[in-house]
Specification:
The structure holds two protein chains of two kinds.
Chain A lengths: L1 H21 L21 H13 L22 H9 L2 E3 L10 E3 L13 H7 L19 H9 L34 E2 L7 E2 L20 H16 L3 H30 L4
Antiparallel strand pairs in A: 1-2, 3-4
Helix pairs in contact in A: 2-6, 5-6
Chain B lengths: L7 H10 L2 H9 L3 E3 L8 H22 L7 H10 L4 H28 L8 H23 L4 H12 L8 H9 L6 H32 L15 E3 H26 L29 H8 L3 H9 L7 H22 L11 H22 L5 E3 L2 E5 H26 L19 H13 L1
Antiparallel strand pairs in B: 1-2, 3-4
Helix pairs in contact in B: 3-5, 3-9, 3-10, 4-5, 5-6, 5-10, 6-7, 6-9, 6-13, 11-13, 11-14, 13-15, 14-15
Classes of the chains: A mainly alpha, B mainly alpha.
Chain lengths: 271, 444
Amino acid sequence: MRKTILVVTALAGLSASAIAWAAGGAGLPHVTWSFGGIFGTYDQTQLKRGFQVYQEVCSSCHSLRHVAYRNLAAIGISEKEIEKIAAEKEVAGEPDEDGEPTERKALPSDKFVPPFANENAARAANNGALPPDLSLMTKARIGGPDYVYALLTGYGRKQPKYEVDGHGDVKLDKEKKPVPFKMGEGLSYNPYFPGLKIAMVAPLSDEGVEYADKTKATVPQMAKDVTAFLQWAADPYLEERKRMGIKVVLFLIFLTGLLYAYKRKVWADVH
Amino acid sequence: MANGGTGSKIVKWVDTRLPIFTFMDHAMRGYPTPKNLSYWWNFGSLAGVVLVVMIATGIVLAMHYTAHASMAFDSVERIMRDVNYGWLIRYIHMNGGTMFFIVVYIHMFRGMYYGSYKNPRELLWWLGVIIFLLMMATAFMGYVLPWGQMSFWGATVITKLFSALPLIGEAVTQWLWGGFSVDNPTLNRFFSLHYLLPFLIVGVVVFHLVALHTTKSGNPLGVDPKGPQDTIPFHPYYTVKDYFGIGVLLIFWAAFVFFAPDFFGEPDNYIPANPLSTPAHIVPEWYYLPFYAILRAVPDNFVGQWAGLGYIIVNAKLAGVLTMAASIFVLFALPWLDTSKVRSGRFRPVFKWFFWIFLLDVVILGVCGANSPDARVFSWYKGLSYLDLGQITTAYYFVHFLIILPLLGKIEKPLPLPTSISEPVLKGGGAAGAGAAAKPMEKA
């Protein structure tokens, strides 16, 4: 019995790691996040800094459509401030008495107002590329927060000499000569972006924001902060989930122990 | 149960009018179960528990979900963010799919190792295969509901398989879609069917249990109980053993729900469905991967060669689809393909090895399904792509069922069987087999 369990566990582990390995994520620098591990929690001051980066840098192109202004209370922003942040944006209101469309200031109950009215407007303003919504970004990419951090800090690296195919081999043209690496117009080189050519120009630069808490705003610092903020935006119940999980698993271990003892007792007379 | 203490008067009153208590008593305490069942026999009841949890959480999710192409994704995010404990219910349901397949795969492989499909349990096995088919359909349609990129493209790839059918393929596919591509009508019918099929599963489970209670449980020795000394009542012995098993399953399940809820998911499914942008790799959920690898194992040129012979005029896609279908439907024939009269693999020294090789084959097929076909298995060796490996393992999958099992039953010399469950020690010879057989009883 014990042997078979071992074999099965090993097989399960093997296939799980095979799947994880197949899923990729290789080559990403691993960042130690405060929210990692089973006891991980968000660092509120970091989230606030990250929100500042989002507001001042990312939000000019990227929407955050699943998050409401009221949700910011969870990262320690006061009700007054939230009202103020929301009121900076205009949203469509109820039609007036004559049936004419109206506009009103956004309320804390509104979702983050997107920077562009629609996809076409977003593409028109961004050289044809569509800046993706960021509400689920850390869940929607292989590598999660590590990927977002790597991407934000991956600008300005030395470009490769030749184009590379899906196997990692140098691409060859018809005459078996290597194809030189060429950057398209308006694109930037980023080794972590699939295809290596990204339409977003380097969004962060040192001292790009002035942190309210006087933290030095280096690119890695800002990238880390905004990634943590986006992780929170994608997974706002992470802390509650882990806290509950520890209680649930401890309880289940206790219960299962009792059930095992009970089983032994019931079976004692069988052998 | 029928002689319960304080409630006995009420119980009696009800029971004389509607004998549910007598029925339960008969099915639980009156069900003689072999006393040597190992923990591998826990997985049937575990599957039942997962089914109930899936239906319960699913019904709650359906209360908050909107089945519309333009609202489905957002409604799932609303469940995750604004519905009270919506994240918990969804993560239980999401990971429940994985738990269901883990449990059922173990249940099936247990059946294969111990020959649980053999006379007189062929129909019991068939009902199990039907449940498995219904589960695959249900899980597939459930995965489509969040309307993420993998939902959409998974649905597109799988429904397009039907277009491979000759003559009627196109019509059938459009009929499934309710239009000319995977779109709102497809999502709506998938939602409807995703709600319906689990109840069909419950129905087939009832038949599965009726068949089980008719033929009675098998056991690790594979010999029939000879008398009351070989059996114990299901309740309380196996109910309490099942409780313990349920506890272990819940710990495992909870670990994923609370600490790695997206472990089995694809990141792409957190991107809203976009018919204009195909993901780099369309990968199904892990539990389909072996079958996905079998589907892709038949490339265009392969069939071209055979079609040239003029035997059958099929295109590559149809051949792939038929091969995949055959990989599941071959399970229906398993009771007759395995020609050995000996049920338990424990007394089949050669079969035992082929069983583990087959299990490994299926795991490798899964890895092939997870990787793109033209990717290399070993980065340092150009000669072996995942397509090649998938073809080898697909071939072996069928060789196992169609050649090895039928032949093995004829050639293999099984170890001597114990005369009964209680007295596994044979007089003279077979000490090894008997010794192994005695062990689980001490511990069980």
